[in-house]
Amino acid sequence: MELRYALLFLSLLAPSCAAHILEPYDFLFDTAVEAYYKGEWLTVILNMEKALRNKATVRSVKAQCRLSCANQTAFGDRPSGMDAPLPGAGSVEDLGFFQKILKRADCVNSCETDKLGTRTLHEVTEDVALEFKKRTPYNYLQVAYFKINMLDKAVAAAHTFFLANPDHMEMKQNLDYYRMMAGVQPEDFKDLEAKPHMAEFLQGKSYYSDDSFGLAANHFEVAVDEYFTADKECKAMCEGAYNYDGYNYMEYSADLFQTMTDHYMQVLNCKQHCAVELASTAGKDKPFEDFLPSHFNYLQFSYYNSEKYEQAIECTKTFLLFHPGDEVMNQNLAYYSAVLGEDKARDIAARQISTQGYKRGIQRKSILEKELLYFGYEAFGITFVDPVSEQVIPYRSLFAYLMADRETTARITEEIGNLMKEIETLVEEKKKDSSDMAMVIAPQEGGALLHDDIKVTMTANQLNGSQRVLLDGVISEDECRELHSLSNAAALKGDGYSGRPSPHSPSEMFQGVTVLKAVKLGQEGMVPLKSARLFFDLSEKVKKVVESYFRLDAPLYFSYSHLVCRSAIDEKQKDREDLSHPVHVDNCLLVSELNECIKEPPAYTHRDFSAILYLNNDFEGGEFIFTELDAKTVTAEVRPQCGRVIGFGAGQENPHGVRSVTKGQRCAVALWFTLDPAHEEKVRTISVDQHQHN
Ligand SMILES: *[C@@H]1O[C@H](CO)[C@@H](O)[C@H](O)[C@H]1NC(C)=O
Ligand SMILES: *[C@@H]1O[C@H](CO)[C@@H](O)[C@H](O)[C@H]1NC(C)=O
């Protein structure tokens, strides 16, 4: 009796227990690495294999959750319980839309939590993610397998690692050595990370070049099916967290629809990249060109050689959907049709229009996605570089199909038109705001500096422009040092973008911390709170000085403040011609080709003044420059040094940039001010005093 209870208990609990103990793969990886250094090979294998398995499980669960939730909560229906339209209630449809969003979020959330445990459990640091991307686990595995004499597995692991690290000389030697060993078969050199669609494609190609056309066709057919599965998964994986690109997340304060738009555009961009990702494989540095269509090219010829003319015709017709004008394929079609009989041939349809309508669906969706992206690009300046060259998915020829579908086109045009109108209204309102503001500004120079230690080193005249000033002695040597170490401490404590490549130059590393982040880190004890406080106080001091020097009648508010260090990467300085920070204007979009600056979002149009407080001079390069609107003609150049401030109007009279930092680390506090209190930086409204006695 007792036993039966126990069993019942177990069987009830077992499924959910099993689901919740999926061990995080970063933890398993660490355990394996530790065991490696102790020479405990079985433990290495056990944990590393499990880490790879669990990582794959996490990915696949996430994709499956998103796909099945998308299935359950498709958009576009009326909200449940609202069958009849309410009089004058246009927003009811809006509610329906958001109801779906909430339901989808709930569905995905509970699906993932059910299967994987809490959401944060399987989050890993960037470092760990990179190790897996570089296939490092296979490096450990090959040694461990070799040590316990599992030669075939050692070879496969070595091969898998080498594919992603073709410059790894040691592994190359290992592989040469394995090749000469007795008992090692050519089939042992497997890519254990190969995606099914790619593995099938490569298999197909290999049979194809051996003239084994029957086998080739089988593999290409499977490859096509796997391609669409992989495509769906890849796209589902794009629906992840918003990536702030590292350095402006503190400034991010978009409204509901802008937030949704920004994130959605990123998702679409990612989805477009799937075509490239699917056509890529570790052993090849470029993606296969014309990847999906090429399957049908191989297939048609394989079927022809197997004397399967119906299939051959079907595949030529499918290929021609991508490249309607392809001469060779049209000739093939004519030839196969003649062999089979014209009448019979005419009745054979290309694949996607017949039974597997979903293929056409995928292509049409891709085009719609692109349209939205181009729209986002035009309306919001959201960057979209089309990753899909015509070779990979020749969408321009597919465009014809879309255009034929008048209804869809008309609908999209109308929706886009409506959205455009809304945006225009918003922009107009914003412009009105800023022109009201402009009346208040009556900038003049030469006001008091408020502190005796500060002196004017150069006026606007000496700086060859207007609304410019160079001040020295604004802060002391000690204060410079303290802020400099604050930056390095914050970078170390996982500000999220420590040691990142600079967003502006591949030859530099970049680290930045905002006042808000510094205060938070200070409160958490990660950096000295005193230093965070100093950052806050000194930026206030600079603001007051700028306000006073330019004799502003209205107060300035912080729009953003950022302590930024740029470090030269020593090995990347040869033949360098780029700038550390390209020439730009702070409150408008500089179009240097036209000598124009457009004061519209996404530029930070509300910024009115800017100041940069320098902290050091022990580096090479890194001069601050003012230019003409052409972004080329340098009108003035300033060398940073501790306590120096360059202050200037944020408008088109002051295009500026930073010359490349070629040696050492250059640190500065960048400050942007606005006259519009509505755009005040968040941190200024929360008290930084409450914890100062901690
Ligand atoms: C989506 O729903 C349809 C019909 O209910 C079903 O046939 C299909 O398998 C589902 N797809 C997924 C990914 O769950
Ligand atoms: C201003 O222009 C003059 C003449 O072109 C130049 O010599 C001088 O260095 C410029 N001033 C600064 C601060 O660069």
TrEMBL record:
Residues 1-18 form the signal peptide. Keywords: Dioxygenase, Endoplasmic reticulum, Glycoprotein, Iron, Metal-binding, Oxidoreductase, Repeat, Signal, TPR repeat, Vitamin C. Its cofactor is L-ascorbate; Fe cation. Residues 561-675 form the Fe2OG dioxygenase domain. InterPro entries: Leprecan_dom, Oxoglu/Fe-dep_dioxygenase_dom, P3H, Pro_4_hyd_alph, Pro_4_hyd_alph_FE2OG_OXY, TPR-like_helical_dom_sf. Its EC number is 1.14.11.7. GO terms for cellular component: endoplasmic reticulum. The keyword Iron applies. GO terms for biological process: collagen metabolic process. Pfam families: 2OG-FeII_Oxy_3, TPR_leprecan. It comes from the Eukaryota. PROSITE patterns: FE2OG_OXY. GO terms for molecular function: iron ion binding; L-ascorbic acid binding; procollagen-proline 3-dioxygenase activity. Belongs to the leprecan family. This is procollagen-proline 3-dioxygenase. It comes from Cyclopterus lumpus (Lumpsucker).
